[in-house]
Give the backbone structure.
Amino acid sequence: MLKKSFATRLQYCLPQHWLSRAVGLLAQCQWAWIKNPFIRWFCKHYQVDLSECPRQTYQAYHSFNDFFTRHLNPQARSLAAASLICPVDGAVSECGWLTQGKLLQAKGVDFTIAALTGQAALNNVFTDGQFATLYLAPSNYHRVHMPLAGKLMWMTYIPGRLFSVNQRTAAEVPQLFCRNERLYCHFETAIGPVGIVMVGAMIVASIVTTWAGHIKPSRTPYTRHYDGQIVYQQGDELGWFELGSTVILLLPPGAPKLAASLKSGEKVQWGQALVHQENVNTCPFSTNPQNPSAKASGLSPAL
């Protein structure tokens, strides 16, 4: 049995969903006397760099959610000329090979692809491939981008708890990412099937996608099929978290090998190369792309 700190044990007792929804409502408040001090404190406490953003003062944001899901200036990031790029700003929690269909959560703790995605068949799809678990800290830019061009085939929503996903909790809560609420997105790409998992966490009010809007919570899992009708280019925006969390990238066997520099604790930025590549060139890329395929799909803005 894993030894648990007081902070981790407390999370088992808290009304996680109620607390997260309540904070979510507060984060939508547009009253200046509430949102301005909150944003100012957050920027100071977490050392948020607003110089990367079009709006560089805390007063310029309509609400805390507006601030938290902020866009970056186009020149703030560069898109590497690589087959696979990082989809988020954050830090590497763990990465490596999907041996026997298992992902490493923390030292001595692992979990299966089937448990994470809710679909046992995906064990065969991704076994002997690779994975990268990327943690988005409170100070990070919280939008998620496409690591390579691909077609959206389906997504599966899986209900669950809302434990924190920081390193301490990952080391102390077994099956953490399989316990938490999450959204699995399945893409077909030039390197084969690619899975992107957006994992909810404590105080995360909601997960939002560019093709379906706010993902509606449910007591039971559900799947929506898109059959490749929605196409994303490398770097296109996929969605965002309203408050922070984790993204897990699943790669098939034969995919380009992840760079050796990707190690636990390593900071990453969206747009950087995830694979080892000589003489990588970079070019400016907009962090607020408009995806015509998503717009033309006629999908409801919410599930």
